Amino acid sequence: MLSVASVATTKTYTEFLLLKYSLEQYHQCEWYVSCDHYVHEKIKDIPNVNSLCLVKTDNCDHNVESLEMQQNFINLVLTKFDACEAGIKDHGYCLFFDSDIVFTNPIEERVVELFTNTSLDGIVSPHMTNNWANEAHHGYYNVGMFVAKNLKMLNQWKEMSKNHRQLKMYYEQKPLEYIHRSYVTANFPIYYNIGWWRFNEDYTRNRLNKVRLCDDSIYFGNNQAVNFHMHTLKTIGYQNFGQFLVDKVFELMRESTNAKYQDFLGYYEQISKLSL
Fold first, then answer.
1. Quick one: DSSP state of residue 116?
2. Domain ranges of the chain
3. What is the pTM of this model?
């Protein structure tokens, strides 16, 4: 049983359902979900979900000029720490995922074993863009996937994220880069949390060729691709820069005879109608 947290709101509800479905194809989970009232009413009676109605509004974004929407986004982000804290108190750790993540293979057993390793304070996920100037500003680690174990580390990270403007840091990603230096952490390898940003540069675009079918499973290079970080169903107010990755992954699923992929595609078609 994995201890898992996420944030789900009216705008991201269908993507959260897709995340939940894809992960539960491979693992049993207990969920700790920070949500708004709409999602709370939808998920509160699901047996393996702890619904935490902490989000006041999802009229927010960090990629817009509106200061109000930026602050609303920060307020929403801060609730993820509360969801993780609830998971840690029940299980000793919590695995966090942004709602726009899709699983295509199980988490390796050797990685799952690290979740309860008392020598570790957490597990982090490097962006792996190879664009050092960009990461110097935005942060070396992606905060859409991590394992939180140490409450002191989690609370310090939350406090720095809350005060990121005064600290002149890029919201929660840059604070993590500083906070984790005082703790013992591991990092997920490149075939986890495969985000669209990893293919952006002239010298990284050829990585897309590494996303391929092998033995009826989606691989990244020589390893099974565990999960992809990309918007699939959320309506966003700007270009979906990760659409190329969505197209690639879904194309491979359609080419495959993998029963889990076919079930996933069927579920995707079912819930996509909810977002119309």
1. T
2. 2-275
3. 0.95
Query: Coil, strand, or helix at residue 192?
Result: coil
Determine the angle formed by the axes of helices 13-24 and 259-272, rounding to 10 degrees: 160
| Residue 150 and residue 92 in contact, taking contact as beta carbons nearer than 8 Å | no
| Residues 159, 94 contacting (CB under 8 angstroms) | no
User: How is residue 266 written in tokens?
Assistant: 């069927």
Which amino acid, 96? F
d(CA 246, CA 182): 37
Cα–Cα dist 60/71, whole Å = 8
Quick: pLDDT tens for 212-251: 999 999 999 999 999 999 999 987 777 788 999 999 999 9
Of 275, 219, 215, 216, whose CA–CA distance to 248 is shortest? 219
Choose among 87, 91, 195: nearest CA to 141. 195
Indicate the angle between helix axes 67-91 and 151-162, nearest 10 degrees: 170
The third-level CATH classification (topology) of the domain covering 2-275 is Spore Coat Polysaccharide Biosynthesis Protein SpsA; Chain A (3.90.550)
How many CA within 13 A on the CB side of residue 5?
28
pLDDT one-digit tens code per residue, 42-98: 999 999 999 999 999 776 565 555 566 677 788 889 999 999 999 999 999 999 999
- Non-local (6+) Cβ contacts of 214 within 8 A are none
